[in-house]
From TrEMBL:
Pfam families: CERK_C, DAGK_cat. Residues 1-16 have a biased composition (Polar residues). Residues 1-80 are annotated as: Disordered. It comes from the Eukaryota. Residues 200-310 form the DAGKc domain. One of its GO terms (biological process) is sphingolipid metabolic process. One of its GO terms (cellular component) is membrane. It comes from Hucho hucho. Residues 34-44 have a biased composition (Basic residues). One of its GO terms (molecular function) is lipid kinase activity. This is Ceramide kinase-like. InterPro entries: ATP-NAD_kinase_N, CERK_C, Diacylglycerol_kinase_cat_dom, Lipid_Phosphate_FormReg, NAD/diacylglycerol_kinase_sf.
């Protein structure tokens, strides 16, 4: 059993421990002068007296004196080359006693080996270490009887480390056993001081939990898996359980966020998109940006979680504008089949999520028709890169692109996808846009032209296989910085399947709910746009907690992109 220390007060962790414990060698700062004196004193003693003394001392004393004394200058240099020592002591790790050294950047330990009769160590000491930048918590370790909630026998301290296991980060505990109260107290306080000094670690987070996501187990996931990690890392969490769509967005837009170091969302892709849009829109409001005109957005000041791991990763974000007015921020968008499918699914919210998605896909495929539109884009090779102004925390464009720089295509398209991130999901384990990355400064434009239903279905199926989904003659891909899509006709989908008293009339009721508006699927949310939509990429506009996030996605994750 472990006892959680009180936040910001390391000494309080020891206030309940009044028992007399068997102490090992007390800790002491590293001192070469002290060790030199010990060596000199022992050399003055007769050899027989030294051997008698070695047989009579206790094991901890033997380790403390002889292990330290026999180290030469080369061994000392091995420790101090990386960083200056802060404190040193003896701990049992596993079943062996170890010489443990703490610096401001790492904890290093090596087993204490007995000497042979010739005075040589039997084997070379194997040194191990953990970087403190990967340690997110330290805790007092005690043994308690059943039902005991406080006190208990002190066993030592435990470090909690973020350890990379394959593409993911896992929490890993390292136990340093020592029953000395003074010994462990000094180590505990020093470790807490070092961990709290890391400036890039969050101390206070705003947490949004969507109780309807993850099969309605989102709050239990937060309570059982996330909250204990926050407590170990001494992170204060202000939790809001969202009650409706747009709840998190309204809080981010209207509340004072000055006391937070980041925002964490526990929910599906819709919840993440809503919070990301809220963070970015709030940043524009705070910077005085006019969202009803074309503008260069500023970067969001608060990172967006995933679970904090001491790392930050910048992410590219898209802005979606119509007639010069900002509609929202997001990461991906689909027009045509992807938008029509989501619009039909939204009309059947009474169905279970999985069932209504399958229903919408089948019905939309049965009534598959192309969109007549004008598609324009700015290739990355023609675009000046954006640079970050470190003072104003905003991206500046060197030159605005002339109209001649745009490449324009007019025709029929079954689906048009614009992706700033790979969009890994259960339907596409390699991603809907496998050739893009989280922060490579470009978007993937994937345009599926007019084709037969069977060929289009083959194209969709390949997203879930190892075959190239873009090898069809009617599919075109481009690496772009901006996309402009203008629908030229609304008649092609006028006979969509719609619901009318439980029956479907293919000639009377259109699928779109707003007259004259075209459905877009933006991060799994339905966005109805009356005319042309402009999509621009803004490099590294948002920061996420985590590292190699796109590689950490798992294939079984559910998605609502289609």
């Amino acid at each position: 059993m472990f006892e959680s220390p009180l936040k910001s007060n390391a000494r309080n962790a020891w206030s309940e421990s009044q028992e007399e414990l068997s102490e090992t060698e007390p800790v002491s700062p590293v001192s070469k002068g002290t060790r030199g004196k010990k060596k000199k004193k022992r050399r003055q003693q007769p050899q027989q007296q030294q051997q008698t003394e070695k047989r009579s001392v206790s094991a901890p004393q033997l380790c403390a004196e002889e292990s330290f004394d026999r180290e030469d200058e080369q061994s000392e240099k091995r420790y101090t080359d990386y960083d200056e020592p802060i404190v040193r002591g003896i701990f049992q790790i596993g079943k062996k006693s170890h010489d443990v050294l703490l610096t401001s950047m790492r904890v290093t330990w090596s087993p204490i080996q007995p000497e042979t009769p010739t005075g040589q160590s039997e084997t070379l000491r194997r040194t191990e270490y953990v970087e403190l930048k990967d340690v997110f918590g330290v805790k007092v370790k005690r043994r308690r009887s059943a039902g005991q909630e406080t006190g208990g026998t002190l066993l030592g301290i435990t470090l909690f480390q973020c350890k990379k296991k394959g593409p993911k980060l896992k929490d890993h505990a390292i136990h340093f056993n020592n029953m000395s109260v003074d010994h462990c107290e000094i180590w505990f306080k020093k470790l807490k001081e070092i961990l709290s000094s890391f400036q890039n670690r969050p101390k206070s987070l705003k947490v949004f939990v969507n109780p309807a996501s993850h099969k309605k187990e989102a709050y239990q996931i937060y309570r059982d898996d996330v909250a204990p990690l926050f407590q170990l890392a001494d992170i204060k969490a202000d939790v809001t359980i969202t009650e409706r769509k747009g709840h998190a967005f309204s809080i981010l837009k209207e509340s004072n966020l000055d006391g937070y170091d980041g925002v964490v969302v526990v929910g599906g892709d819709g919840s993440v998109a809503e919070v990301a849009h809220g963070l970015l829109l709030r940043a524009q409001m705070d910077a005085g940006r006019d969202t009803d005109s074309m503008f260069t957005p500023v970067r969001a000041t608060l990172p967006l979680g995933l679970i904090p791991a001491g790392h930050h990763q910048e992410v590219d974000v898209c802005s979606f504008s119509c007639l010069g007015r900002l509609l929202r921020f997001g990461f991906s968008a689909m027009f045509g089949f992807g938008g029509r499918t989501l619009a039909l699914a939204e009309r059947h919210r009474w169905m279970p999520p999985g069932q209504r998605r399958e229903f919408a896909v089948i019905k939309t495929l049965a009534n598959l028709k192309p969109e007549d539109c004008e598609l324009s884009y700015l290739p990355v090779k023609k675009v000046q890169t954006e640079t970050l102004d470190p003072v104003k925390n905003e991206y500046l464009k060197d030159n605005m692109e002339e109209e001649e720089s745009w490449t324009t295509t007019r025709g029929l398209f079954l689906n048009v996808s614009i992706m700033a991130i790979p969009c890994l999901c259960s339907m596409a384990p390699r991603g809907l846009a496998p050739n893009t990355r989280l922060n490579n400064g470009s978007m993937a434009l994937i345009a599926a032209g007019n084709a037969s239903r069977s060929e289009f279905i083959k194209h969709l199926k390949r997203y879930n296989s190892v075959n190239n989904q873009f090898s069809f003659s009617f599919v075109e891909t481009q690496t772009v910085w901006a996309v402009r899509l203008r629908p030229r006709s609304q008649s092609s989908w006028s006979d969509d399947i719609a619901e009318d008293n439980g029956e479907y009339d293919s000639k009377n009721t259109p699928i779109i709910s707003s007259e004259g508006a075209y459905p877009w699927n933006v991060d799994g949310d339905l966005l109805e746009v009356p005319s042309e939509l402009l999509i621009r990429l803004h490099p590294q506009l948002l920061t996420l907690f985590g590292v190699d996030i796109e590689e950490a996605e798992e294939a079984h994750i559910k998605c609502s992109c289609i």
